[in-house]
Amino acid sequence: MIAADSFKGKRLALFGLGGSGLVTARSLRAGGADITCFDDNPASVEKAAGEHLPTGDLHAFDFADAAALVLAPGVPLTHPRPHWTVTLAEAANVPVIGDVEIFARERRHKAADSAFIAITGTNGKSTTTALIAHLFRSAGRDVQLGGNIGTAVLSLDEPAGDKVYVVECSSYQIDLAPSLDPSVGILLNLSPDHLDRHGTMAHYAGIKRRLVARSGVAVIGTDDAHCRQIADALEAEGRKVVRISAEGPVDEGIYWQDGRLFSAGQDHVEILFDLAEAPTLRGRHNGQNAAAAWAAARAAGLADEDIRAGMRSFLGLVHRMEPVGHVGKTLFVNDSKGTNADAAGKALASYEHIFWIAGGLAKEGGIEPLRPLFGRIAKAYLVGEAAPQFSATLGGDVEYEISGTIAHAVARAAADAQASDIAAPVVLLSPACASFDQFANFEVRGEAFRDAAKSLMGFTDYQGGERS
To answer: Among 27, 28, 1, 23, which Cα is nearest to 12's?
Structure first.
């Protein structure tokens, strides 16, 4: 854990005592800050008090001489309306910050020369974050992986020059980090998201821009208009910008085309890598993720050959296009995290000859947006509440059966795949649905798929490298 001693002796209010909030409170206490912690949930306050963290009702807190209000990222800062603690802090002209801001200050204070790679974007940031961490880890570096990917950033090891910090940042975290200054900042893409918390697309894009605005090197995906504008503006300001694309060549930067990564300079184009050598990085969307990871790793000093080796051994994220194993010629892929049509479409577009397991608690729009991909599906196996709706959409275009449960669907799909004359069939769980009709969450659903596949006679685990 990082002891936030740059706040030693400073008086702080902290609101939000969930997982990351508790870590932040412990970090500030360890660094010697004078903190008062609170939450709207009395049970959370009681839990913090049980750890001997100083708690108190912030309604009665005197913000007049406070150094900051430390806010958990899940708490509204601006929209749909500021949380009441924010209103009190702003009335007293007290800055509102979060855990990523504290980390940024601690890094500058203790090891400003340490590599700090920060990643954001509407889509793909978790895969890109995990891939970058894996590239450095497989090259023998001390990697500290955290942030929005699931490990609170202040629970990482103390900043040191030999460590590489790889931190996924949500828009909420960036909004609470006014001095964020990674050595390499990545902005993958921008599309409307979380507008209930940010109000407008312009405001949302402005927040995301902050991650790259003060980066030593800004790696920016230029496949959407918002990101292109940000890249052009930063370059005009004299910032070092590396453009990436999954839609073809860029003048200077790294791009994906026809399954390969290319590096483009003023007078040359170099083939970097064929992603056929990295089975977990299939598809155009992963082409953008891989291009960003390569650009960031290069900028942070990793040699191209080390990057190639890391790409080959990357196993991907659990439950996101995760190769589980084989039965004979059939590959089993767990994409339980594909909880809507857009996510499932990325998986379907990445394979051919698919024995598709889909269904659960349907999202608005169902699977109609996937119709252009129906030709990739050999047969569908429908589970959960969405089965009747999905069967109506598939109609006579795709052969299907109502399987009911994941276990039954896996058994039926495996048998059909093995009996087919297809050389390399894929049994793919990509439900295009929430899990809550049959499972507590998508993780439990993915484990059910994995267990069902592993129970099949002749099953062998997928042979790959380390999963980040």
So the answer is: 28
